Amino acid sequence: MTKPNISNNVEPELIAGWLGTRSVARGLPAPVPDHGGWRVDTAQETEQRRYVFAGPADGIRELALSITTPFTFIKMCGTAAQLLALVPQHWQLQRVGYLMTHAATSDVMPVLPPGYRLEIAIDHPFPATVARIFSDDGALAASGYAMEDGGFFIYDRIAVDAAHQRRGLGRAIMAALGTTQQSNAAQRVLVATEAGCALYATLGWVVRSPYSTVEIKARQD
């Protein structure tokens, strides 16, 4: 797949805004500056904390050497090779994603294919908006979240069930969430998988950078 307009020059303000809004949407602690990036103490069963960087930074080397606890992630705007060059060998590469932005704000409520219905609500107890598409038999076919805060409008956890793919439901979720944006000046941001990147590119989203992740493994002594 060809990625349009890829640039590794990602403004730290963009990452800070996206990460802060993501924390609000998920009810997580606010990001804290750390080693030239940001730390989020997620305190979840499979992720205790994550460190996020706008690009390759010297602080990543020192940080990676200091960490010994599992379920810790370092995430960076840049290629897998760039990130792996900064961490010891006991860090394991995860699937690479793509940081993407979008300039337009002209969404209209989607028309669903027959056999589906759309629900939009607030994700209580969190403030994010959630859009869900159900099939006529009540099964959850697709879902996604969005949050606007501090000049940023982020899309999060966009998913289409395998049994309902290739029916335009991903596009419908994106459009439905887009209609909830309040400020035309808010910057739209998301991080996509490889498959998601292909879809979002057709909707006018631009890849700003690969988004690479490593996770610490237990040392083999």
What does it look like?
The structure is a single chain. The chain is of the alpha+beta class. It folds into two domains: 12-100 and 209-216, no CATH class; 106-185, no CATH class. The chain is 22% helix and 35% strand. It contains five helices and twelve strands. The protein has helices at residues 12-26, 58-66, 80-84, 169-178, 194-202, and strands at 32-34, 37-40, 49-53, 72-77, 91-93, 97-102, 116-122, 129-135, 140-149, 152-160, 187-192, 206-216. Strands 1, 2, 3, 4, 5, 6, 7, 8, 9, 10, 11 and 12 form a twelve-stranded mixed sheet that branches. β9 and β10 form a beta hairpin. The protein is globular, with a radius of gyration of 18 Å.
Can you lay out the helices and strands and say which pair or pack?
Elements: H1 12-26, E1 32-34, E2 37-40, E3 49-53, H2 58-66, E4 72-77, H3 80-84, E5 91-93, E6 97-102, E7 116-122, E8 129-135, E9 140-149, E10 152-160, H4 169-178, E11 187-192, H5 194-202, E12 206-216
Parallel strand pairs: 3-4, 10-11
Antiparallel strand pairs: 1-2, 2-3, 4-12, 5-12, 6-11, 6-12, 7-8, 8-9, 9-10
